[in-house]
Amino acid sequence: MTTPEVLLLDVMGTLVYDPFHRVMPAFFGMSLKELLAAKHPDAWVRFEHGEMDEGAFLRSFFADGRGYDERAFVEAIRGAYRFLDGVEPLLAELRERGVEMHALSNYPCWYRLIEERLGLSRYLDWSFVSCDTGVRKPHPEAYLGAARRLETPPERCLFVDDRESNVEAARAVGMDAVIFEDAGQLRAALESRGLLT
To answer: What local confidence, expressed as pLDDT, does residue 2 receive?
Structure first.
């Protein structure tokens, strides 16, 4: 197996704990099912696309326009960001070995909150976040645009994500791709490709 030149990493659910499934519903005293039924149907996607700033997103979070403590909500999200178990030492080892790493993430401007809290840029560059690029995975351009900007053929990139649909889309454009399950499984996948020993 050829050793990749560039490692493209999803962030939420792959490197960093995603507050959406537990922290957000708990903040509102709802179940996830209740929250999904009450939230605005497309505000989050527009927020991730960079079409909506934070203020507009927070005001339109609920489909019925109900009010809530927006600042406390953002702070609850910020406070929940943490590295998934075993991920930070893995990133540190990859960085020590000189592996070129970039985020390829569907996320809004809140990635800056992750950076403030965790300092993820110690390990990788926030190069391809959907709110800045205007493209979300699994659209082919999310992957091809990253490869073009890096001047690296897709087949020389390795993409890692916790969603099968995103992994399949990367493979469809010629990238090697790994679905993330946990840090141990990812380490084995990276070792098999010569990125770690």
So the answer is: 81
